[in-house]
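Example 3.2
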Amino acid sequence: MQDFLATIYYWLKAGHIVFVVFWMAGLFMLPRLFVYHQECDPDSPDNTLWIERERKLIKIILLPSIGVVWALGLALSVAVDAWSQGWFYAKLALVVGLSIYNSYLTWYAEQLAKGERKLTGKKLRLLNEVPGVAVALIVILVVIKPF
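Structure, written as tokens:
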């Protein structure tokens, strides 16, 4: 299996990077949509539009992207024997953290759809920084391989 994955390594890597970009775009966009959603009147027609936009972003971009990122990432890890390298475990921990963050955002979209607005716009703007910090650390780990 490892030999086969090694022969298609560059295709796996290219696909992984493309879907990471899609996933990160969704993770950057969803909290911003939440800010606009929370600023509209709960009884306005715009409220329904924001719920639909958030739902589409989750179903069309976030869910497929996270699945492909994980599948291709795991295949890459086998192809390059990353499981024997320390940097990989740090990267894996960050990706697990981003996956939990993704789940939290999906949960929060459900709360907003129910009319529950638990976070302030300021907190949502701060949440928007999480994927940027995580992806910067991940890129450093993958490129530099510090340990």
